[in-house]
Specification:
21% strand; eight-stranded mixed sheet; disordered N terminus; alpha/beta
């Protein structure tokens, strides 16, 4: 660490873990005096060419003076950062503050020279780009606004690092050297570059975990049974295409294989494996995990799935053990799924990896699954396999990740992978916590623009699982859900709904609108479907009853007509057992429906079936998700005999042992997915139709699809953030700076709040205090009559129902009488704090609020004042900054919006003025992150204009914006 003679303490907050271009990780930290030997060792491993590019001359070794200079920093004018793997330097960067003449300087000089050196073996991994982001953030913190770099023309790689960063640059050439100068303020392009690099790196890091070329199971038992051995057997039986190894430290030296695992090399240690290992699956007691991780790190393993339990879910000691596990793995450049994980699956024919406690592989398909709970993950896989007692599966699984305690790899990382994964069309996620909601929202918006993202969130009404360390949010769950929906997330409430929506989205096109045709052989079932459509906000056509004697040909003709109807956007087919002689064959009916749907592939078709198991099978046969036997290895007879499939509707058992299994799996044995009947062979391009056992489930899935399709259309033209010429951003900033000198967090006084809002064109009606009746009369004379007299005591504020407001006081006599009534009925003036305010035009009372949440970010909320918002919770929310289209949508999103648009013959109010007010509040909060809360209540929206009658503004030092800083992995 730095010695006491240095000017500043060691800046520990500069330490960070980063994901590199190839998916590995490195640790970035400040260089200190203790790093002299590491620096010398690092420099010795750099090629002469790289040294020449760094120093513009042959420089074979560092002198003692060089070592002292490069390890002694004041962390203000001279800063050095190093990227490390395994505790050793792989790259360095430093800046030195300079004055206008290029000589060393101190503040207020705001320019610095920057220089990099990357070990040749690690060039091309994106290390220099990551270090540039971090050294730029450090420089901005220390008051430096510009970097200058001198680079030899032949050093094209380093020139590319600077030019590709996205900063505004100036380039010159003098004396054979290229001089680059660029400002350090983030630009739209630099943020876009940073986020694109983040996506590629994090996607690659997950790909290395899901598509390894070789796998080792650490903790595999010598005989069948136990978690480790089950994992090994599951990988083998799935037909994994890569190399598979087993490690058991108790294995006798002469043994090279485990009993019943012929062909799988077994070793006592990872170190004994001859050849590279990409993925390690760890299933040993928690106390033995550090030794296993160290062996993996030293052998060059790229990633780890930790199935072992006994970490954060077990209490404070386990939480510290989990932190140490993450630190240890990242020090070797490895990423972790888990601990306490259920495992991962990749059904790609090129991989066929089942590194999970589910002993059978689902059929390859187009749905990606992510679950933070192993039990829920198994439930999801089981639902997708089943044929009866639930939604019929119409597609298989591409990848499955159960993250356990989510100590490292999270849903955000998996979303980055799915974004451009060609094998995944729909993403289903079960989340019990969101570690970085701001980043999740950003990634969800981008992912949802290209493929559906369906999310169900557990632990909505309480704290998350003990194993998940996340930042708390002050926003209600309903608000967070609304913000997620704004980002394109399809939010559902149950696992059943998650699968229902996912299956429809996986194989049916998106509807172009909410108009629904209903046809079938049951009038009653058709009416139930019709009612369900109305309840979900869809626009159903009257049901077409084909009668119970309808044949397959009748269904085909009716469906063809409905799909050809330009006034129809989707079709729901209802079917009950036929009563004709002979009854309609299920396979024939399924074929008829598929044939008609295939002729009009642009409209979705759903089937509601009652007691038609054969129809459900036939509809989904072409994409059966039945577990497929491995091509090379037969299924284990002991697994089939010992763990029969459970009855339909029951949750299958899951594997565990008391020592290493995830705590979320019961101890009965390996989880077995119910095996459905063998699939019928159909053409690969057969048009597949999802079938549902209840009208409500089918219609709800369709409603989600309709809403998502509308979001996709809206996202294509999101609108713009208007630039209002009368906004005085500089005056607002000066006022904020002046106020924050009084304390770290404060609520502005009435006049200060009016001044700040006024700088953004938000005019608050003036209210004058009235401690006496005479003061009230004088206030009315100053403001102009008619006036309102109201109390502002906290327990009576905005409570007109308690008689704390008197309106339309046109003369002194009325004002004095009202004043006496208030003080007689409600309390003394000191208790009531009465004020006088000029009357505003009559209209609809509304509420406008904005808040910056440390976890979720800035949100704008709107609703009607009084009972609609307070009693019914009728509020709508949008992420800041809000565009003009989003402001219009916000106003119309509340259930009581008709009151603004002429409900029951009333005069419509000035909603364009209301939308402008919302946009101005959004601009204020977005421009000045120190404004952490704004409340305007009430805002009276009249037929012409709006009147803000009361306002509150809270200031605080701006919360950290991890989405604007350099790329970094979360540190829990």
């Amino acid at each position: 660490m730095q010695t006491s003679s240095d000017r500043h303490e060691y800046p520990a907050h500069w330490e960070a873990d980063v994901v590199l271009r190839d998916g590995g990780t490195a640790r970035v930290r400040p260089i200190t005096v203790d790093d002299a030997e590491r620096l010398v060792s690092f420099y010795e491993q750099v090629s002469d060419e790289s040294k020449y590019y760094r120093f513009f001359a042959p420089y074979p070794r560092l002198s003692a003076k060089d070592v002292h200079r490069f390890t002694h920093h004041d962390f203000v004018d001279r800063v050095g950062l190093a990227a490390t793997v395994g505790g050793e330097f792989i790259a360095t960067v430093r800046y030195d503050r300079i004055g206008p003449d290029g000589t060393p300087a101190s503040a207020p000089a705001d320019e610095a020279e920057v220089a990099f050196l990357v070990q040749d073996a690690h060039q091309g991994r994106g290390i220099a780009s990551a270090l540039l982001e971090h050294i730029a953030a450090v420089a901005r913190e220390r008051g430096i606004r510009r970097f200058a770099a001198e680079v030899l023309p032949a050093n094209s790689k380093m020139i590319k690092v600077f030019t590709d960063a996205g900063y505004t640059q100036k380039r010159s050439f003098e004396d054979g050297v290229v001089r680059l100068e660029f400002g350090l303020e983030p630009t739209d392009r630099s943020l876009a570059v940073q986020q694109a690099r983040e996506q590629r790196a994090e996607a690659r890091s997950v790909q290395r975990l899901l598509a390894p070329g070789s796998v080792v199971v650490i903790g595999a038992g010598r005989t069948p049974g136990g978690v480790g051995r089950s994992l090994l057997d599951n990988i083998r039986d799935a037909g994994f295409t890569g190399r598979l190894y087993a490690v058991n430290k108790a294995l006798p030296p002469e043994r090279k294989e485990l009993d019943g695992a012929a062909g799988v090399p077994a070793h006592r240690s990872v170190r004994d494996i001859d050849g590279p290992v990409d993925l390690a699956v760890v299933a040993v007691p928690a106390d033995d995990v550090p030794e296993a991780v160290a062996e993996c790190g030293e052998h060059g393993v790229q990633g780890i799935v930790v199935v072992s339990a006994g970490y954060a879910e077990a209490g404070p000691d386990g939480r510290e053990r989990q932190r140490a596990l993450v630190r240890q793995a990242r020090s070797y450049g490895m990423r972790i799924i888990g601990p306490n994980a259920f495992g991962v699956i990749n059904t790609s024919p090129d991989v066929r990896l089942n590194a999970s406690l589910a002993p059978q592989m689902p059929r390859p398909g187009r749905i990606g699954l992510f679950a933070q709970s192993g039990a829920i993950g198994i439930a999801l896989l089981s639902r997708l396999h089943r044929r009866g007692g639930g939604v019929t599966g119409v597609t298989g699984v591409s990848t499955f990740v159960s993250s356990g305690n989510r100590a490292d790899v999270s849903g955000n990382d998996v979303m980055q992978y799915w974004y451009d994964d060609p094998d995944t069309d729909v993403a289903l996620m079960y989340l019990e916590s969101i570690g970085n909601p701001r980043k999740f929202t950003r990634l969800a918006r981008r992912t949802a623009a290209v493929k559906p993202l369906v999310v169900v969130q557990g632990a909505r009404h309480g704290s998350g699982p003990r194993g998940h360390a996340v930042r708390a949010t002050r926003l209600p769950h309903a608000t967070v859900s609304a913000l997620l929906r704004q980002a394109g997330v399809i939010r559902v409430d149950t696992i059943t709904e998650l699968v229902d929506a996912g299956l429809l989205l996986a194989r049916q096109p998106l509807p172009s609108g909410p108009r629904v045709a209903i046809l079938g052989n049951s009038e009653s079932l058709g009416l139930l479907t019709y009612d369900a459509c109305l309840a979900e906000g869809l626009r159903p056509h009257p049901p077409l009853d084909l009668t119970t004697g309808a044949s397959a040909a009748d269904f085909h003709a009716a469906l063809s007509r409905a799909l050809a109807d330009d006034t129809c956007d989707a079709v729901v087919v209802t079917a009950i057992p036929a009563l004709g002689e002979p009854p309609t064959d299920d396979a024939a009916l399924a074929g008829a429906l598929r044939s008609a749907a295939a002729a009009a592939p642009s409209k979705p078709v759903l089937v509601v079936h009652v007691e038609l198991g054969g129809l459900a099978e036939a509809l989904s046969a072409a994409a059966s998700t039945a577990p497929q036997p491995a091509p090379a290895t037969p299924a284990r007879p002991e697994a089939q005999a010992t763990h029969p499939a459970p009855p339909d509707g029951e949750r299958p058992p899951a594997a565990t042992t008391p020592v290493t299994a995830p705590t979320h799996t019961p101890p009965q044995g390996p989880a077995v997915l119910p095996a459905p009947p063998a699939p019928v062979s159909l053409p690969e391009d057969a048009h597949l139709i999802p079938a549902y056992p209840a009208a409500e489930r089918a219609v709800r899935a369709l409603a989600h699809s309709v809403a998502y399709a509308q979001w996709r259309r809206d996202a294509a033209d999101p609108g713009k953030v208007p630039a209002y010429e009368d906004i005085d951003e500089r005056s607002a900033a000066a006022l904020i700076d002046a106020q924050l000198t009084r304390g770290e967090s404060l609520t502005l006084g009435t006049e200060e709040a009016r001044a700040l809002l006024g700088a953004y064109g938000i005019h608050v009606h003036r209210a004058l205090p009235a401690p006496t009746a005479d003061a009230a009369v004088e206030a009315a004379r100053t403001l102009g009559r008619p006036v309102a007299l109201k109390v502002t005591a906290p327990h009576l504020r905005h409570r007109a129902d308690l008689g704390g407001v008197r309106l339309d006081l046109a003369d002194e006599e009325q004002l004095r009488r009202a004043y006496d009534e208030l003080t007689d009925q409600l309390g003394t003036p000191e208790e009531l704090r009465p004020v006088v305010q000029r009357m505003a035009p009559r209209g609809v009372d509304t509420i406008v609020r904005a808040v910056i949440d440390p976890a979720a970010g800035a949100a704008l909320s709107f609703g009607l004042a009084g009972a609609p918002s307070q009693l019914l919770g009728d509020m709508a929310h949008r992420l800041i900054p809000v565009t003009d289209r989003e402001a219009a949508s916000l106003v119309r999103s509340i259930r009581t919006a008709p009151l603004l648009f002429g409900w029951r013959g009333s005069a419509p109010v000035d909603t364009p003025a209301l939308e402008e007010l919302l946009l101005r509040v959004s601009r204020l909060v977005d421009d000045h992150p120190e404004v952490v809360a704004v409340g305007l209540e009430p805002v009276v929206v009249a037929t012409h204009g709006v009147s803000v009658l009361s306002a509150s503004v809270r200031l605080a030092p701006p919360p950290a914006r991890d989405d604007l800083g350099p790329r970094t992995l979360p540190a829990y």
